Amino acid sequence: MKLLVIGSGGREHALAWRLAQSARIQKVYVAPGNGGTASTELLENVNLTAIDDLIAFAKKEGVAYTIVGPEAPLAAGIVDAFRTAGLKIFGPTQRAAQLESSKDYAKAFMTRHHIRTAAYRSFTDPAQAKAYISEQGAPIVVKADGLAAGKGVVVATSVQEAHQAIDKMLEDGAAGARVVIEEHVSGEEASFMVMADGHEVLVLATSQDHKRLGDHDEGPNTGGMGAYSPAHIITPALHNRIMREIITPTLQGMAKDGIPYTGFLYAGLMIGDGPDASRSITVLEYNCRMGDPETQPIMMRVKSDLTEVFEHAVNGTLDQASITWDRRIALGVVMAAENYPGTPRTGDTITGLPQNTEECVVFHAGTRLDGKTIKTAGGRVVCVTALGDSVKRAQVAAYDVVRQIEFDGRQYRNDIGWRAMSHAEKPV
Ligand code: AMP
Ligand code: GLY
């Protein structure tokens, strides 16, 4: 079978890589792909991004189904267009993707369906936004309403910083014609992802991301600088509560609103302190796709034939699907280009990339194949992902490889996994 994966990041490399391990796979096309998908067996890059071109390609090649990685094509209606053309595709429709593409929509949805989220107000007028911030005080969170690749959020520790964020988002940003101002919620974050087919739901392994650029969670927010799976904080008791309090009401709420949800659904959660039965579980954001870099460690742990899982998902029979997970911990460290999360420097040659092994895979993101060399081509460059019997072992294995990979201006965190290690760790 031939499949098509849309996107060019580490998430898409990881998805395509795992799909390609199925004996059923003849080819996994990745559009447009990156330097890693260009040099992985059974994967082939397709240099197309326009939805019409992708539809024509999928028809010509007899692609069995398409999987959409990033949010932008979903928000642009790729799922609607493929379905209208009679093609199978996994992802939410344009209307359903508003859960991610409009923070304002998502907040109103959660309020309407009694799903716990931070208190908020939304504004288009900078003066009113600033007055509200002054009245609320800091810490306070300012979010651009539209898609901003994980960079449209400012967790402000002072009123002045929040006012500056308003200036930036309401006066010069296209994504920021509207802002959402949110109450600051404290606790520990976790990423909870499921697959939905409009009726049934299949829960994926849990994970935890590291959003800040620097060690000790300092510096600006990024798309994510590293992740591991599973997230120790999500005990079986919390897992049940998250399904009951967040995931089920979300999917039922969408169905009730007449927008049945298909695709990945990612709830970015803040888990408050306390015993599991009473800890607060607050939705910080929905994403209508898998997380990046969370996908990389999650894919390392998939033991089932992923092509079958997606087949059930696009056919509406997810109740018949299951995934067996490797019991080990997978941990991924992102190596980013100079100046990320600002405009990254690109075009540097990457050296020291090792052969992948069963226990450590380098997933590419902002790279391109240039003749025989791999060059940097984006902000997050690679995500080195390793398996281990403990977080510590996975961390050591990943960093051993990270230290071999060189390109000018590279930056990475040295402490991916620190939170997991601060929970009393039992080897699996
Ligand atoms: P988002 O894109 O909405 O997940 O926001 C990016 C990051 O900002 C989150 O992963 C959190 O670390 C932080 N954040 C977002 N909303 C809040 C909030 N209401 N309180 C505290 N931190 C937040
Ligand atoms: N790593 C967070 C995200 O993909 O939104």
CATH architecture of one domain: 3-Layer(aba) Sandwich
Give the total of beta strands: 23
Oligomer: single chain
The largest pleated sheet is described as: 5 strands, parallel
Report what the structure shows.
Among the domains are: 2-93, Rossmann fold; 125-177, ATP-grasp fold, A domain (Dna Ligase, domain 1, 2-Layer Sandwich), CATH 3.30.1490. The mean pLDDT is 94. It is α+β, with helices and mostly antiparallel strands and 428 residues long. Helices cover 29% and strands 27% of the residues. It contains 13 helices and 23 strands. A hairpin with a 2-residue loop joins strand 21 (367-370) and strand 22 (373-376). Helix 7 (126-136) runs antiparallel to helix 8. The strands form six sheets. It has a five-stranded parallel beta sheet with strand order 3-2-1-4-5, sandwiched between helices. It binds adenosine monophosphate and glycine.
How would you sum up this structure in a few lines?
The protein has a 5-stranded parallel sheet, with helices on both faces. A 5-stranded antiparallel sheet has the order 12-15-18-23-20. The chain has a 4-stranded antiparallel sheet with strand order 6-9-7-8, sandwiched between helices.
Give the SSE layout:
Blueprint: E1 2-7, H1 10-19, E2 27-32, E3 43-45, H2 51-61, E4 65-68, H3 71-75, H4 78-84, E5 89-90, H5 98-101, H6 103-112, E6 120-123, H7 126-136, E7 140-144, E8 153-156, H8 159-172, E9 179-183, E10 188-197, E11 201-203, E12 208-209, E13 212-214, E14 218-221, E15 226-229, H9 236-256, E16 262-271, E17 281-287, H10 295-300, H11 306-315, E18 329-336, E19 349-350, E20 360-364, E21 367-370, E22 373-376, E23 380-388, H12 391-402, H13 418-422
Parallel strand pairs: 1-2, 1-4, 2-3, 4-5
Antiparallel strand pairs: 6-9, 7-8, 7-9, 10-11, 10-16, 12-15, 13-14, 15-18, 16-17, 18-23, 19-22, 20-23, 21-22
Helix pairs in contact: 7-8
This protein binds adenosine monophosphate and glycine.
